[in-house]
């Protein structure tokens, strides 16, 4: 039986009525039961009252009797007389009320008997008082009355206890009845609500279905009405173009759209031709044929399905009107198919979205349109056939007359053919000769092709050689720069000391000589820096420090820098910039920007004579500027121009001046000096900043060099400054990785041994001396720094080898260490890593002084400062000031950025102690403002902050020069992606993931970056750090897989590792390594050689990373490949770290401890 809406409503109301009746019945039954229970409770209270009255009346009677006996006054007997009546009345009431309780009946009967005895006793006392007062008193004083009265009290109390027990039971029953009634009542009310809700939803669903049916009917009527209208518009013997126009007009009118086009297909050419349209532009009407598959229309024709494009800002589909052009944002394209034949495509454009009704309507009428177009084609073909038949009939008559003439002419032509045959024979002979000549030419072309192929191969070989030469050149320049800087370092400092002439032991001429030496050294340093900058840019290794740069500060700096130069050369110097631009900042590298401007201005002053003019101008880029960089335009970049009135540049020289070591006048007799590197470096730096340099010059009139840079630096629009930045994918968070360290050869070690033979202060150190350990392989510079230490009342110890310096640090426990990064035997980075992993040494502040640009690596490993060689006396003095300031600073300040107050407090309690004061910030904005207001020694940051991401906060800190150097420790519990790990490795000093032992690791990292002395920490924290760095336990029982095809290496490695109680597995190549890992999934680390048969180390590493259970296993590359870039290639393949052969076992064991620490 199918329920109608009325039946469903009646059923719901009936159910509600039934539930209400049940509620009423149960309410009545419970109220009756409740009333009955209350009556019993009241009954109990009455019994208790009657018993109480019996006792009270007895007491009143006895009191009245005693009063009468004592006084003899008759008025005292009034209460006694009343008691006689009342007491038996209350006993009768008690009997009546307890008639249902036999126990109480017996007890009341006993009370009545005792009352009778007591009343008899009282009556005897009263009567005896009439006759003998003394006997009456004696009788009252006897114990008879008291014993009877005590029994009455006891029995009444027992009766009351029974009633109280019954009262408690009846109260409980009453409470239970009330609770049951409430429960049943609530349950039934909930049932009513549920039934009402069900009825409501039934009604709503039925109404929705009704409305949906009405809408479906209306949509069908709308579709049928449109179909009828379209059929009416297509009636009649219309030509194909008239029919198509009628169809388009109907759609525009009925669908209320704005544009339309109908294309008819040419099946032979597989193309579409525009046949009719509505409101189309002239260009659209003249458009060529569209092949199937070309564009959206062609694609619809090829796929044969309806397509709707929404919110498309098309520029080619425009609705033109007198007020302007409108671009429809919605397009519907439908194919016209008839029996699987493609007849055409309809394209409609509208300002409003196409509804489902529109799409359904289009699908519905496509068959009708296809039939109409097919009929129109058929009519057109019939008409053409009729016309063709008539034309052929006329032509046939004309041809009959022509045939007669042809017969006559045929005879004449036959005679001519015979003559032509003779001529053809002679031409065939000539053609045969031509073919032979062509064959010879083809052979010659083949030989030329082979020659070209050989030439091409030679060119490719040369290109490869040039690439290698460029690579070797960059490596040579980087290494040579370091080798030049090291002796130049000593030259600059010593010459400056001589020029200062503190002891007044030099003549003025000698001081002048020393000053000239110092100036020449500075010039040489500038040249080395230029060559190195060019090398960095060419090799893609240039580091950019992007920040917000104020144009007003740029103008002030440039004016201050060149104003004195202009005055000396008698040149007018102007700096022009509008007030609006002076308030503007650009997001770029200030150092590199100023370097470009300095180069351009230096050239301008060099080539401009006295009384000339040089102008530096900052303005917005001109609209007419033509940029080579497609990412630049007049709206997103700034123009910084340098204009001079100098010698100018010939037109044919304006390109070569940007090449390295090229000048306008390159002859040996040239008037102006210089290396020819300034403009080359400027061009490369501008490209690195995302900009470009334009030059305009006229010979003898002057030049204008214009630097265009974007307002905001975008790395994707520039050359890459680190081509390996995205390749490194570390899978474990550990200490920062260092460059590969090549073990020194025996000859280097021997030289290093000899270098140790010099005097320092190691044998003169007393208990209260301040000691600095100098790790420097340049003896002259080391002794020079020793003299500086003596001036500051410090003692110094010199070590020229990394391993020796490490031993001295453990032996002498210096107050500070000055470290060179390029040391024999053990690299400076490895020394620093071992210092910071040793609990006894990790608090010692380390200042790096090196000729290599490894600042970030050094600071990440725990150094507190980095100075680049060569250094001047002033720089050295500042370095020693920093060491003294660091030593004097007893209280370190830590900022904890964590939005969870409990975790924030826990971190501060974990790290905090007497030498560290902790501060809290709960949002990124609050932390940033605190950092700008005060100085902090370290920051702990959680990535999940309420107002911004932790990544955003760290990037803001790194963009601010005054706070970018503060060590940042990321403490997070989130799963990091490969890109996020990559980014954190660049931005953060350390990353600690929230795990079981993360608090110990966090304490260790903060102790490292705050340079805390372990012995001053509380005992429990000392124990945590010592346990963390107890190296002998880390390697014990760990399983390692050694993958190497050289049995000698395998033998030596496994023996060394087994001495550390490690379990070794061996594989001869990558293929076997995969099998060993599969069979032994408990392996914890892999040592991987690179060059191996069958499957090399790169392929094996990638295959291991594709195995889910080993995607995070540490893999350390052990290889003889030690060229620059090999480490990055290993890391890009998925390896975790890199060490080169010959292997330094101490370094290898250190790496194993780092990666195996859980």
TrEMBL record:
In-chain residues carrying the UniProt-annotated modification 4-aspartylphosphate: 820, 942, 1089
Record's catalysed reaction(s): ATP + protein L-histidine = ADP + protein N-phospho-L-histidine
Transmembrane segments: 12-28, 181-203
Record carries keyword Coiled coil: yes
Keywords: Coiled coil, Kinase, Membrane, Phosphoprotein, Transferase, Transmembrane, Transmembrane helix, Two-component regulatory system
Enzyme kind, highest EC tier: transferase
Domain Histidine kinase: 479-713
Sections of the chain in a coiled coil: 375-469
InterPro entries, alphabetized: CHASE3, CheY-like_superfamily, GAF, GAF-like_dom_sf, HATPase_C_sf, HATPase_dom, His_kinase_dom, HisK_dim/P_dom
EC nos: 2.7.13.3
GO MF annotation, one: phosphorelay sensor kinase activity
Domain Response regulatory: 771-884, 893-1009, 1039-1156
Superkingdom assignment: Bacteria
One family name in Pfam for this protein: Response_reg
Protein name per Swiss-Prot or TrEMBL: histidine kinase
Organism whose genome encodes this protein: Cytophaga hutchinsonii (strain ATCC 33406 / DSM 1761 / CIP 103989 / NBRC 15051 / NCIMB 9469 / D465)
